[in-house]
Structures are given as C-alpha cells and as structure tokens.
Design brief:
Number of strands: 12
CATH class of the largest domain: Alpha Beta
Helix content: 10-25%
Mean pLDDT: 96
Strand content: 15-25%
CATH topology of the largest domain: Glucose Oxidase, domain 1
CATH architecture of the largest domain: 3-Layer(bba) Sandwich
Number of helices: 5
Structural class: alpha/beta
Low-confidence stretches: none
Oligomer: single chain
Shape: globular
Radius of gyration: 21 Å
CATH superfamily of the largest domain: Putative cyclase
Largest sheet: 7 strands, mixed, barrel
Length: about 260
C-alpha cells in the first residue's frame, strides 16, 4: 500500500473536556452555548425574526474559559525547560517548532514493567530496542508506554508513574531523537518521588533532571499521551499538531499514529 494512504489512524490524545475533579493545575473549563443564543445576536444585528429561515435555529458556539497549556495532551517546547540554553542562547517557544519535526517514524518502548518511582534508564531502552530488533535514527519519534494512561481522569493521576532519567533522555537525543513522548502525567518521575530522592540522597541534581537535559541539548517532548497499547512497536508514522501559540512554553496537541498494513 502507498504510505500516503494509511490503513488505520490511531488518536493518541486525550479529549479536552471539563474536569472539575482534577487538581487545580490540570483544570479545564469549557462553556457550551446553545444554538438559540445566536438567534438573538442576529436579531440585534438587524434581521427581524419573521425573516429568519424556517430551519435556522442559530449556531452552536463554545468558549474555553480555562485551559493551561500543560493540562492535557501537549508538547513542551525547549523554552519550558528554561529561558536559555547552556551557552546563553534563547530557547525556542512552541510556535518555533520546525514542521519537519512534527511528522516521522514512530517507535514504542514498552516500559509497563517499571514500578511507580522507578526510573527508566539507558539499559531499559537499549534492551527494548534489542527485543524488537530495530535501531533509532534521526527523525524517529520515540514514545514511552508506561500504561499509566489508564489513570487519566483520576485525581491522583499526576502522582503515579515512572520517569525517564536524565541519562536515558540524553541517550535518545544522542541517537537522533529530537521528539519523544510518554503516556503518564510528566516526563520525569512524579514530583514527590523526585523530592524524596533529592532529600534522602542529599543531591541537587535530581529534580526535573530529564527536562533540564533540554537546556544543554534542546529537544521536544509530549506528555499525557494515551492509547499506546493500540500500536505495534514500530512500522508506523506519528503526526503531532500543536496549537500555534506565540511565545508559549507548550501547546495542547492532537497526536495521531498512521499505520500501514
């Protein structure tokens, strides 16, 4: 089959929906306006009701009154990790993401065996590649399947999961991966695990370490993916379509996989 004609398209994104049970930093509010509301707008614009078309019930409209750019499936720009890189150059914001990075061959690393609070290391990723018999190459979009997407919508979702270590993040970048993603709340270990380890080990290099790799080696990562279990380990393409928000640290994104059978 022509690769421009996928046999199946899989949506890997969360729905953007009002979620009052989620923590405040993940809260989304959407106001849905009914069709008949627009009839009054048209009347105020000057058209008498008697001249409305018989089947004109007005138009539906919706307003997003709250949506943090990190509240749902989204892609982080290097600007999220800090204002400048290690040499003092400004890091790019989300609308500066190159279009050629938004589409590429995908690979899924199955890390569902990793326990909460247990980091994903280089050895885990290398063993995963050996197991599926493929190699990373420039342009590959690497996705980490932890299985924690099953907790999306639960208040403790953000507290559950593993995390990709700084060394493993850098290893992916060094193998040509500039875009990567994960199906849990964040790329690093959940905050309470990072804080616990930092305090117990007396270290100042552990908190947000995977993200901070992006200040030395800028990269882009997707958080809060879902449905990676519907994909094979490789042999598909990924498309990422973030909102073009000027100057933003991230953007909600529609992420889809294209399968060719």
């Amino acid at each position: 089959m022509n690769r421009l004609q996928p046999a199946r398209i899989v949506d890997l994104s969360k729905e953007i929906v009002e979620n009052p049970a989620d923590p405040f930093f993940m809260r989304v509010k959407v106001k849905h306006h009914r069709h008949r509301r627009a009839r009054w707008l048209v009347r105020l614009l000057g058209l008498p009701f008697r001249l409305f078309p018989k089947d004109f019930e007005g138009w539906a409209d919706d307003t997003i009154t709250r949506l943090g750019v990190h509240a749902t499936t989204h892609i982080d720009a290097p600007w999220h990790y800090g204002p400048t890189d290690s040499e003092g150059r400004p890091l790019p914001t989300i609308e500066q993401m190159p279009l050629d990075l938004m589409f590429g061959p995908g690979i899924v690393f199955d890390m569902t065996h990793k326990q909460d609070g247990e980091e994903i290391e280089i050895a885990d990723l290398a063993e995963g590649l050996t197991r599926i018999g493929v190699a990373l190459s420039p342009g590959t979009i690497a996705m980490i399947r932890t299985g924690r997407d099953r907790f999306q919508g639960q208040p403790d979702y953000w507290k559950l999961g593993t995390g990709v270590s700084a060394a493993a993040t850098e290893w992916l970048i060094d193998h040509g991966v500039r875009v990567m993603g994960i199906d849990q709340w964040g790329w690093d270990l959940p905050f309470h695990h990072q804080i616990r380890r930092s305090k117990s080990e007396g270290r100042s290099d552990l908190f947000w370490a995977g993200h901070l790799v992006g200040r030395r080696k800028p990269y882009w990562h997707i958080e809060q993916l879902r449905g990676l279990d519907a994909l094979p380990s490789h042999g598909f393409d990924v498309g990422i379509f973030p909102l073009r928000l000027k100057g933003a640290s991230a953007a909600p994104a529609r992420v889809v996989a294209f399968l060719y059978e």
